[in-house]
Amino acid sequence: DPSSHSHDEL
Amino acid sequence: MNIFRFLGDLSHLASIFILIHKIQTTRSCRGISFKTQAVYVAVFVTRYLDLFTTFVSVYNTSMKIFFIASSCYILYLMKVRFRPTNDPSIDTFRVEYLVGPCAVLALIFNYGYSVTEVLWSLSIFLESVAILPQLFMLQRTGEAETITTHYLAALGAYRALYIPNWIYRYFSEGYVDPISVTAGLVQTGLYLDFFYVYFTKVLQGQKFELPA
């Protein structure tokens, strides 16, 4: 599920 | 966003400013591994491909642009501006030994088989080992300028601070990113020897010197 890994970190 | 991640990002920013300051004030990139810096450019470019497709926040976008731009600027300083002070003969770590295995890992472990997801994964794995050419160089020369050790300490602290951030996010949001966590633990682990010498010598006012 890509939404649980939104890559919101840097 | 939580305090650990924010402090981690600040530490990452600080490390870049310290490095640029070191190169500009000493007018030399002596002691800095070009290979490590080049890998960082690859890390930021492959990770932030989503810059034009995904908007998280102004903070997130600004930081991404800054990391790409500053890492390219450092390469420019090393290869053009202060080129004569860069000594490739002591920067001998074989980067292909890092890129190859990381590419294989990225193809196996990722969050989706798309170009952007595999490259994101590659950037995470590559970042975790990007410091190795630099640490290898340090090991070879056995010493480092104090300012260079501050750069490395700030850079190591950045990923170390992401660990409490991941713990915090697990409990507050149920968020887990196993790829980042695994690579982040490895990345932080690589700094342990360095941190030991940094805390026991440099912060006590002594020069960074490894035992012969």
TrEMBL record, chain B:
Report how it sits in the membrane: Multi-pass membrane protein
Entry keyword set: Endoplasmic reticulum, ER-Golgi transport, Membrane, Protein transport, Receptor, Transmembrane, Transmembrane helix, Transport
Localization terms from the record? Endoplasmic reticulum membrane
Give the GO biological process terms: protein retention in ER lumen; protein transport; vesicle-mediated transport
Query: Is Plastid among this UniProt entry's keywords?
Result: no
TM ranges are 65-82, 94-113, 179-199
Cellular component aspect of the GO annotation: endoplasmic reticulum membrane
Name the Pfam families for this protein. ER_lumen_recept (PF00810)
Going by the entry's taxonomy, the superkingdom of the source organism is recorded as Eukaryota
Q: Does the keyword Protein transport apply?
A: yes
Question: GO molecular function, one example?
Answer: ER retention sequence binding
Family stated for the protein in its record: Belongs to the ERD2 family.
Q: What is this protein called?
A: ER lumen protein-retaining receptor
Q: Which organism is it from?
A: Heliocybe sulcata
